[in-house]
């Protein structure tokens, strides 16, 4: 196999290889809890969330204009409602009911401490690694490596990371005047200033609803959902009002949330920040043909088809599954991992980003007609834009 066709990544986080890894991890965690119940953390939603009459920090007040106006009678009345959030010290006088430019009401709740994490004892971490190792027996080396990366990330973030002090955070929910709907949050100020906080609901036969909280200084957001094999490009500008935004888009609930590139614009139209820039992939290994989420590609002695993408992280990597059509018409299961984003420039001076490395693993069955040893074999291809130049595929 001298040449590999690279495919762009997408998002369907409920299937395939990544879902199999998540399922194994959940099984291992359940086994740990069954053997050592003390390793299971308390439910952060089990206790009534405390409130405080204190004022938020100057940093928080200076980041969101909605907290610098007086509270309405309706907002003050919300202080008496019992809530169960993974937070402590909801600022009683700073609940805010706001309406987006599209006419949807939303409830914003700032909290003194939105960090409920406590590290687990080392014995619990060791037990999780042992159970995971047992569940991984019989899997190929590439799957084990990928699963181990997921496991260690979970351990760093949720099991063994250092305990940190109280951190202010904000929660966002849709609001109908009687109760809250979808939402969540707890994001800290640094995240809110640089990425905002977004949630998506629905999808399927109906458009997904996306809601978000945005810091001061952003008057509108230019959205770009790239065209895919299944969906047309969506490019529109939505207004930000009272620090919130909401819009509908014909994408799945997951794709609606993680797929778009968002360009934050000031009132004068200048760019404040670009959030989640699109990462393309060199179609058929050629940086002059950058594409986004096609379902098939062919080159050299390896064809890939029926591609389904399970995981998408525009800043780091993407994974997917498909079918490899090899020589003599032999078909085999295939797994794809894309990584190492690089920047390139079009002839018009537009800076784009693409995955520069792909690893494809092919499963050869026993008695295959190619005479290959049964099992998984991996192939790695690296792509670099010549002189840093690239173009989107027509």
Tally of helical runs: 7
Instruction: State the share of residues found in helices, binned by percent.
Output: 10-25%
For this entry, what is the oligomeric state of its chains? single chain
Radius of gyration computed on alpha carbons: 24 Å
Low-confidence stretches: 1-15
N-to-C SSE string, H for helix and E for strand: HEHHEEEHHEEHEEEEEHEEEEEEEEEE
Write down how many β-strands occur, each being a DSSP E stretch of 2 or more residues.
Answer: 21
Strand content range: 35-45%
In one word, what is the shape? Answer: globular
Could you tell me the mean pLDDT? Answer: 84
Sheet/helix structural class: alpha+beta
Walk me through what this model shows.
By secondary structure, the chain is of the alpha+beta class. It is about 20% helix and about 35% strand. It has 7 helices and 21 strands. It has helices at about 15-35, 60-65, 75, 120-135, 140-160, 190-195, 255-260, and strands at about 50, 90, 95-100, 105-115, 170-175, 180-185, 195-200, 210-215, 220-225, 235-240, 245-250, 260-265, 270-275, 280, 290, 295-300, 300-315, 315-325, 330-345, 350-365, 375-380. Strands 14, 15, 16, 17, 18, 19, 20 and 21 form an 8-stranded mixed β-sheet that branches. Strands 1, 2, 3, 4, 5 and 6 form a 6-stranded mixed β-sheet that branches. Helix 1 (about 15-35) packs across helix 4 (about 120-135) and helix 1 packs across helix 5 (about 140-160). It starts with 15 loop residues before the first helix and ends in a 12-residue tail after the last strand. The model is unreliable at about 1-15 (pLDDT under 50).
């Amino acid at each position: 196999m001298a040449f590999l066709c690279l495919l762009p990544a997408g998002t369907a986080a409920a299937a395939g290889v990544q879902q199999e890894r998540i399922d194994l991890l959940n099984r291992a965690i359940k086994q740990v809890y069954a053997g050592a119940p003390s390793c299971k953390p308390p439910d952060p939603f089990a206790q009534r969330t405390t409130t405080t009459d204190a004022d938020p920090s100057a940093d928080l007040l200076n980041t969101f204009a909605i907290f610098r106006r007086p509270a309405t009678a309706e907002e003050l009345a919300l202080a008496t409602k019992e809530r169960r959030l993974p937070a402590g010290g909801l600022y009683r006088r700073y609940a805010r009911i706001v309406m987006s430019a599209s006419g949807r009401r939303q409830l914003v709740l700032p909290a003194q401490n939105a960090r409920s994490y406590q590290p687990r004892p080392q014995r619990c971490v060791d037990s999780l690694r042992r159970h995971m190792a047992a569940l991984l027996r019989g899997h190929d080396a590439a799957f084990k490596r990928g699963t181990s990366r997921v496991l260690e990330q979970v351990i760093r973030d949720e099991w063994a990371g250092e305990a940190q002090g109280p951190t202010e955070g904000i929660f966002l929910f849709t609001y109908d005047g009687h109760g809250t709907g979808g939402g969540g949050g707890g994001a800290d100020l640094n995240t809110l200033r640089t990425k905002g906080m977004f949630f998506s609901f629905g999808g399927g036969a109906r458009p997904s609803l996306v809601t978000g909280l945005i810091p001061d200084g952003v008057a509108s957001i230019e959205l770009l959902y790239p065209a895919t094999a299944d969906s047309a490009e969506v490019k529109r500008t939505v207004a930000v009002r009272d620090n919130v935004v909401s819009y509908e888009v014909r994408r799945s609930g997951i794709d609606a949330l993680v797929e778009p590139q968002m360009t934050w614009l000031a009132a004068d139209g200048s760019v404040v920040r670009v959030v989640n820039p699109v990462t393309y992939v060199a179609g058929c290994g050629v940086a002059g043909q950058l594409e986004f989420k096609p379902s098939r590609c062919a080159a050299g002695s390896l064809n890939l088809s029926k591609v389904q993408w399970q995981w998408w992280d525009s800043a780091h990597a993407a994974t997917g599954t498909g079918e490899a059509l090899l020589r003599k018409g032999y078909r085999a299961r295939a797994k794809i991992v894309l990584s190492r984003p690089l920047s390139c420039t079009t002839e018009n001076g537009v800076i784009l980003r693409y995955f520069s490395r792909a690893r494809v693993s092919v499963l050869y069955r026993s008695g295959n007609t190619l005479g290959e040893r049964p099992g998984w074999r991996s192939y790695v291809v690296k792509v670099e834009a010549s002189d840093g130049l690239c173009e989107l595929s027509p």
